[in-house]
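DM from R.C. (forwarded with permission)

"hey, sorry to bug you on a friday — could you get me a structure for this? deadline for the figure draft is monday and I only need the backbone to look sensible"
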Amino acid sequence: AVLLPVLTVAYSWRLGVLVVGILMLAMAFLSFIFYKERPVLPAEGASDAAPTSKKGPKGSILKVMSNPVLLILCLITPLMAFGQTGIASFLVLYLEEDLNFSVGLAGGCLTVAMIAGTVGRIGWGIISDRLFAGDRIIPIIILSVIAFIGALGTAFLSKGFPVWLPFFWSILMGGTFIGWNAVLITLAAELAGKELAGSIMGILVTIAWIGIIVGPPVFGYVADGFGYYWSWLLIAVFALLSAVGFLYILRLSKRGNQEVSVG
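My reply, with the result:
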């Protein structure tokens, strides 16, 4: 993601795509050689088999999916994925067409957004583990609010603003809309448990792909019909919905803890 804009501007988009394809093949080969599954100990296998034999996997999946946090995740992930693909697809075009940025300068904004996304995917996990003692909800709320601010700031950009400001908004959007994956996916895996982590993750990622597929055409249609302002405002609203949804979950969890303490 960092190299692609640079290679495209310096050489051609074909070379950029070729390099990305080679890197993907290299990563697949290295994963095949070096990645090993953790061996399952006999005690773990016995403990895992017991609950599975009592309940069918279908019933267990339905029970896990009825968790309100997972339901909120299923609603939020396609919205955040929508924002992610909208940024990746249209940020450069927006800066070129509306703000008269050069291709190199616009590509630089996309580059810093991708770098911020890479840092965010690691950073939000560290923040969740270290600062919030493994709490995933609060970091997701913070992430969503920052994403809202970044998209809203981008919507209000104009030619009179200083050059550094689009870079700043790009960093905010990259660190959140592109960096959201790890902490949300970790939350889903933890809620699913070891037995159903694969199944639940498959469902969640499939739902997220709805936003990935729908995002670029809808973002582009809104930009063509009404202007980029409304496209950025749309993903800002999606980020705000994410924050509101997880604030609701946080309220439910606090209410549940209070009921347990009273009981």
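R.C.: lifesaver. Residues 44-55, 258-263 have pLDDT under 50 and may be disordered.
me: no worries. The CA atoms of residues 61 and 223 lie 39 Å apart.
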